[in-house]
């Protein structure tokens, strides 16, 4: 449905913080399904442990950081929010701002080699503020649920500091 070129045309994020690989389906202003392949070649694994261990210690050592899991899901929500009017230039137009989150729960660790499936649903839109809910899955198993995430759009010109 949407590859890297189209995703980059909607989000300002770039390596190493572009955390959406592919959009599988989108229903504008309603829902989106996107993938993120987790790889041990990502920069946050560079200083990680190299030893062997059982499954529990591997999950603790190599589990994808929860903050990045949330960030990846939020970027997917950003793709949905900008589907009808993309603007990846944060210096012009509207800037996408993270407002807050509630009801986020982590259920299972995500390990390198797994593919995240982010399911995002637009719950409500009030003016330039959008609320989303959803979940992330690996092989059909829920690894994270999102009760609500709020995003706002503000004109870049009002966010820039005034120069004298």
TrEMBL record:
<comment type="similarity">
    <text>Belongs to the thioester dehydratase family. FabZ subfamily.</text>
</comment>
<dbReference type="InterPro" id="IPR013114">
    <property type="entry name" value="FabA_FabZ"/>
</dbReference>
<protein>
    <submittedName>
        <fullName>Beta-hydroxyacyl-ACP dehydratase</fullName>
    </submittedName>
</protein>
<dbReference type="Pfam" id="PF07977">
    <property type="entry name" value="FabA"/>
</dbReference>
<dbReference type="InterPro" id="IPR029069">
    <property type="entry name" value="HotDog_dom_sf"/>
</dbReference>
<keyword id="KW-0456">Lyase</keyword>
<dbReference type="GO" id="GO:0016829">
    <property type="term" value="F:lyase activity"/>
</dbReference>
């Amino acid at each position: 449905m949407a590859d890297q070129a189209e995703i980059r045309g909607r989000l300002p994020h770039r390596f190493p913080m572009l955390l959406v690989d592919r959009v599988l389906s989108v229903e504008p202003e309603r829902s989106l399904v996107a993938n993120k392949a987790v790889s041990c070649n990502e920069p946050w694994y560079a200083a990680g442990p190299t030893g062997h261990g059982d499954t529990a210690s591997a999950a603790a050592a190599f589990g994808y950081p929860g903050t990045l899991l949330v960030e990846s899901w939020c970027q997917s929500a950003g793709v949905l929010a900008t589907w009808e009017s993309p603007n990846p230039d944060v210096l012009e137009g509207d800037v996408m701002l993270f407002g807050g989150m509630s009801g986020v729960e982590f259920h299972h660790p995500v390990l390198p080699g797994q593919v995240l499936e982010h399911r995002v649903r637009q719950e409500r839109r009030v003016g330039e503020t959008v609320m989303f809910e959803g979940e992330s899955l690996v092989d059909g198993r829920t690894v994270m649920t999102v009760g609500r995430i709020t995003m706002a759009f503000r004109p870049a010109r009002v966010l820039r500091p005034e120069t004298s």
